[in-house]
Design a protein that fits this description.
Blueprint: E1 22-24, E2 28-31, E3 39-46, E4 63-71, E5 74-81, H1 85-93, E6 122-126, E7 129-133, E8 140-142, E9 149-152, E10 168-169, E11 176-181, E12 188-193, E13 199-204, E14 217-218, E15 222-227, E16 230-231, E17 244-245, E18 251-257, E19 266-270, E20 274-284, E21 287-295, E22 316-323, E23 328-344, E24 355-360, E25 373-378, E26 383-388, E27 393-395, E28 399-402, E29 412-420, E30 425-432, E31 442-445, E32 455-460
Antiparallel strand pairs: 1-5, 2-31, 3-4, 3-32, 4-5, 6-7, 7-8, 8-9, 10-11, 11-12, 12-13, 14-15, 15-18, 16-17, 18-19, 20-21, 21-22, 22-23, 23-24, 24-25, 25-26, 27-29, 28-29, 29-30, 30-31
Bound molecules: fe (ii) ion.
Length: about 475
């Protein structure tokens, strides 16, 4: 018999896993789903199948995909776990076998020597493949219609390291740029896959210390690595926090020419901080402009934020201006409110852009979640607008979908899954990205909740 989940901040409320897989045909919709939206929104997040062994960390749970297919004004839903080796082994055993990030020593002898891939962080589409991503291992390919897991994927043997959950697609070339990091040398490796999905470049990048590098930035001219003092040393692994905060190391931002290599990286130094997610970056003359959700220190590790994400340090959207001629970095706070899970109109990834979006925190939210507003940043006017969800509804990462492939930047929709704490269920909100404060164009109503997850993407035309 399965044991109940322990009382842990990341296993209660809407962090608690949803135990069912299923599908719902033709969901109830308030308002009208724009006819331009024909495709599937895929989202990924941690959803532990079994009661954890030892202490749980938010990043530990088995990846579950939630897919909303929108077609001809109708909405359909399907959810499924990614069938990882870990999920299969634990189902066979009838219990958790692997210790988590906070308690790796709790691993059962039956699972020793096997590195558990949780496949729980992001889900992307590139070169016709739907990939569930997790930064400490290879992706898994899934069937885009059934969400069936097809298996781990290593780019025909070319992926020789883990793969970040945050690759960047170059909107002009269709290439997929990504990296992998590791606590063991080489600590960082950079890759480029062609629009056809073939790895055409793979090279080591020299960094002195292994650190947790969750995301990175690319521009038309540069690749930008953020080396924050959140170390990921091998000796940390069994200590209860694989990531340690070592602020004396400062933060290093490496700018590498797209056609250069490790030796060409120019390193900028700035105050210690931590960034999970950038919004976007671009190169202009001899400067790189980079907008990032900046934490004062790493959350969720090394004793901070174990009692809940919203109780740890909160991030602020910040602009770094990296002057390649002068070697200086200017840091500018762009907001007073906290925001995370930044996105943009991804046709502008790496290019000068105007519109950005994020989950935002405003007023006095209840303690049911972190982000009770959807923020729209207009970098041209400097204005921030918002869709305020009130004190008891909480958004996930808003995903932008253009109205048409050639629509102007920002003309389109924001798709975001919102948790209704009072009803203990979730809605998919469709907002007009040009008018976020307006009433949602449509609210797709789910009878159950979608646990707080991490990232997702829109698959145009997948219906
Ligand atoms: Fe992320």
């Amino acid at each position: 018999m399965s044991r109940p989940f322990p009382d842990d901040p990341f296993l209660r409320g809407n962090y608690a896993p949803w135990p069912m897989e299923g599908e719902i045909h033709d969901l109830v919709v308030e308002g009208e789903i724009p006819r331009e939206l024909n495709g599937t929104l895929y989202r990924n997040g941690p959803n532990p199948q079994f009661t954890p062994r030892g202490r749980y960390h938010w990043f530990d749970g088995d990846g579950m995909i939630h897919a909303f297919t929108l077609s001809d004004g109708h909405a359909h839903y399907r959810n499924r776990w990614v069938r990882t080796q870990r999920l299969a082994m634990e189902r066979e055993a009838g219990e958790a076998l692997f210790g988590g990030l906070s308690d790796m020593t709790a691993t059962d002898p039956r699972a020793m020597g096997i590195f558990p891939n949780a496949a729980n962080t992001n889900i992307i589409i590139h070169a016709g493949k739907l990939l569930a991503l997790w930064e400490a291992g290879p992706p898994h390919t899934l069937d885009p219609h059934t969400l069936e897991t097809l298996g781990p994927y290593d780019f025909a043997g070319a992926l020789v390291s883990p793969m970040t959950a945050h690759p960047k697609m170059d909107p002009e070339t269709g290439e997929l740029l990504f990296f992998g990091y590791s606590p063991f040398p080489p600590y960082l490796r950079y890759y480029v896959a062609s629009a056809q999905g073939e790895v055409v470049r793979s090279e080591e990048i020299d960094v002195p210390v292994p650190t947790m590098i969750h995301d990175f930035m690319t521009t038309r001219d540069h690749v930008i690595f953020m080396v924050c003092p959140a170390t990921f040393r091998p000796e940390n692994l069994m200590t209860g926090s694989p990531v340690r905060w070592e602020p004396d190391l400062g933060t290093k931002i490496g700018v590498m020419p797209r056609n250069g290599g490790s030796r060409d990286v120019v390193w900028f130094e700035t105050d210690p901080c931590f960034v999970f997610h950038p919004m976007n970056a671009y190169t202009e003359n001899r400067r790189v402009i980079a907008d990032v959700c900046r934490f004062e220190r790493v959350p969720l590790f090394d004793g901070v934020g174990a009692d809940g994400f919203e109780r740890g340090p909160l991030p602020i959207l910040t602009r770094w201006t990296l002057d390649l001629a002068g070697g200086t970095v200017k840091e500018e706070q762009l907001d007073d409110c906290s925001s995370e899970f930044p996105r943009l109109d991804e046709r502008y990834t790496g290019l000068r852009y105007r519109h950005g979006y994020a989950g935002g925190r405003t007023g006095s939210p209840s303690d049911g979640g972190s982000f009770n507003a959807v923020f729209h940043y207009d970098h041209q006017t400097g204005r921030r607008r918002m869709h305020d969800l009130g004190a008891t509804s909480f958004t996930s990462e808003p995903v932008f979908v253009p109205r048409a492939s050639h629509a102007p930047e920002g003309a389109g929709f924001l798709l975001t899954v919102v948790y209704r704490q009072e009803e203990n269920r979730s809605d998919l909100l469709i907002l007009d990205a040009d008018n976020v404060e307006g009433k949602p164009l449509a609210t797709v109503k789910l009878p159950h909740r979608v646990p707080y997850g991490f990232h997702g993407n829109w698959g145009q035309g997948i219906v």
